[in-house]
Structures are given as C-alpha cells and as structure tokens.
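Regression test case RT-17, inverse folding.

Input:
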C-alpha cells in the first residue's frame, strides 16, 4: 500500500464516497503512528539504500540544497 496526499478515487468511480472514506481512514491511521516512527538524519556523504517494495518511507521537510540520485536494481525475485 502506498499513501500519498494526492490519492483520489478514479474519475467517475461509482464507489467514490466509499473510496474517500477508506482514504480518510488510512490518513487517520498513518497520522496516528507517524510520531512513533523511527527517524534518521543523513549527513553529507551518507547514502540510504532501501527496498521500495518492502519499506514504507518518507521524509520530513527541510531547508537547503537536496540532491537525489536514484538507482533501480531488480532481482530475479522481482519478476
């Protein structure tokens, strides 16, 4: 499950109200646990490697310059 602030029902979905209610429930659950989630700070030269399919991740706001380089690697298990 991926959660973004831009998640919306599909255009003219007949279950729009149900989907909006489910998204609101998900938002409430996520915001409820966010304060207890682990946080880490990356310093200049640090690297973070994670599996996007197994790790629910995000980042807090920041100031200053930010450089992101993305490398995608697939394993045989990825199919």
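Golden output:
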């Amino acid at each position: 499950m991926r959660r973004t602030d831009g998640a919306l029902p599909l255009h003219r979905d007949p279950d729009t109200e149900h989907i909006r209610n489910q998204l609101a429930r998900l938002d409430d659950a996520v915001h409820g646990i966010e304060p207890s989630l682990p946080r880490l700070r990356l310093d200049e030269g640090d690297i973070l490697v994670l599996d996007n399919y197994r790790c629910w991740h995000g980042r807090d706001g920041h100031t200053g310059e930010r450089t992101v380089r993305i490398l995608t690697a697939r394993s045989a298990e990825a199919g």
